[in-house]
Amino acid sequence: VTLTVQPVGLANGDDNEGALVFSGGLLIAVLSRLSPQHEKSEGRWFLECGFGVVSDCHEEFADIDAAIAWLTSQTVKARS
Amino acid sequence: MSAVSPDHAKLIRQLETIASLSEADCLSLAALPFRLKSISENRDIVREGDRPNESCLILEGLACRYKIVAGGRRQILSFHFPGDMPDLQSLYLDTMDHSIAALAPTRVAFIAHDALNRMTALLPSVGRVLAKHALVDGSILREWVANVGRRPALERIAHVICECFVRMRALGLVQQPTFELPLTQAEIGDATGLSNVHVNRLMQQLRRQGLIATVGKIHSILNWDQLQETADFRPAYLHLRAAIAP
Known about the structure:
The complex is a heterodimer.
Chain A: E1 3-9, E2 17-23, E3 26-33, E4 45-50, E5 60-61, H1 64-79
Antiparallel strand pairs in A: 1-2, 2-3, 3-4, 4-5
Chain B: H1 6-16, H2 23-30, E1 35-39, E2 44-46, E3 54-60, E4 63-68, E5 74-80, E6 99-102, E7 106-112, H3 113-122, H4 124-150, H5 153-170, E8 178-180, H6 185-192, H7 196-208, E9 212-215, E10 218-221, H8 224-231
Helix pairs in contact in B: 3-4, 5-7, 5-8, 6-7
């Protein structure tokens, strides 16, 4: 499974730096980078909205690589 | 009425928020034997699966009723303040179907079911008031189902704040317009089905809108009318007596 990431701006208050994550050309997740308003979580990445196997998930990740690794593992798990 | 301990007075005060007690009711409540215990923060007071032979009364601190679902996630089902008896149902239901935990350092009194049954057999009027307390718990639970299931996230959080404020005010635990509610964002999230990130954003939104101010655990209601409107908060479900209702 190879996921592709596309940076995107979000209409999401201070947390406006985001990324779209695609699997096979299909959107599976919208991530945001947490702004200083989140204090200790500043700079972490948050799963704002997921589709398919990650719908209803709102995980927080140390960085975008960790987010992609988790999304990849969930996608692989769903296929096996 | 004489010789009512401060701990017994908390139970009487709670029951008087929902019913009128006679002097005989108060005297028999004041004579209930208490087994006192201090519970550390985040420790269970009674656990799912337990078969208790006593019910607990919160005397100091803050407690919650909760269930753990698959994957280990916690849903908080209600908050409980000094004077509340959150597991009265264990008088009639043998096995606990949920747990009750302290969210802050909490002091509780355990009251033997035998003592409660003896009291209510001798004085059915006080039994009816205890039953009413348990029924109001059920009413609060129904409101929470509607809150978590159908209200938008901002309303949901505002509703929890309104409810805590009104219940604590009825119990004399509020210094208008300020009250201490030692809840973490994670606990508010567990009560509303929201992530920490969402709770943080929404609490900031309530502050930006000038509805509340928060310094640590101390919350101040800055615009009560607007907060109630935002929360879709209608306190009839708390069944407070007219003299106490907001």
